[in-house]
Amino acid sequence: MNEPIDGIDATRRRVLGAAALVALAVAPGVSLIAAADAGQRRAAAARPTRRFGLLIDTTRCKRSCTACVTACSAYNGWSNQGRPIDPQWIRKVEVTEPVSGLSHSVPVMCQHCAAPACVEVCPTGASFKRADGIVLVDRHICIGCRYCMMACPYKARSFVSEDVSGQRPDAPRGKGTVEGCTLCVPRVDAGELPACVEACSRQGGGAMTFGDLNDPRSAIRRALAAYPAVQLRADLQMDPGVRYQGL
Q1: Would the pLDDT of 11 be above 90?
Q2: How many CB atoms lie within 10 A of CB 66?
């Protein structure tokens, strides 16, 4: 009886040792396991009384401005060269009103829905929603099935099919997994604004407002009270946390 058990223990030690080496070799200074532990602690600390959201005033968003896209790329370590396989965490979309012909340049990203379809279809639980409404992907249990990509009506998720580089230690990416806008959750947990919102304020038209949708004193709630806003595909009843004014 002792020999099989010893053999199993030896095999487990080899497997665990290999896993540790892989974790260390993901990228210089980046450990997926350490980052996962930190992310889980942040998710556990998220307040259920909050619901973080984003308000975009399309009348202030210029077609020529890509400050939000550039800032997202710089913070999260991805580059968009216009290829179909490139990630699209945030993209500019031209929307035209069919009767008046009036058009707007609209930033579109993960809508951080209250009832996200991506979470519903995920077979492993890798797609999940934090208590404060931010929708994320746990890359350690994502199997790359891409069900969430098919379920999302906003085309807000991308599959990582190539090697990645330039990763941040607090937001590592993983080849073979699905990813999307996180609202720069490490920054949010540190009391900072998402990178796109900060860039829009400094370099763009100040079209983005981030905050707690449940707090009547927050800037986003005051802005929503002052002027009506819409949700993209509100008919799907997923209650997106991203709202748009001027559409």
Answers
A1: no
A2: 20
Residue closest to 71 by CA, chosen among 124, 107, 118: 107
Residues 183-210: tens digit of each pLDDT:
999 999 999 999 999 999 999 999 999 9
Per the listing, tokens 């991805």 go with 78
Cβ-count burial of 95 within 10 angstroms (0-12 exposed, 13-18 middle, 19+ buried)?
Answer: middle
pTM: 0.81
pLDDT at 101: 83
Write out pLDDT tens, residues 221-233: 999 999 999 999 9
Nearest of 35, 70, 66 to residue 186 by alpha carbon: 35
Cα gap 78→174, rounded to integer Å: 12
Q: DSSP characters for 131-173?
A: TTS-EEE-TTT-----HHHHH-TT--EEE--S---S-BTTB--
Calculate the alpha carbon distances from 188 to 55, 98, 143 in Å.
16, 38, 27
Mean pLDDT on 147-155: 97
pLDDT on residue 46: 81
Length of the chain: 247
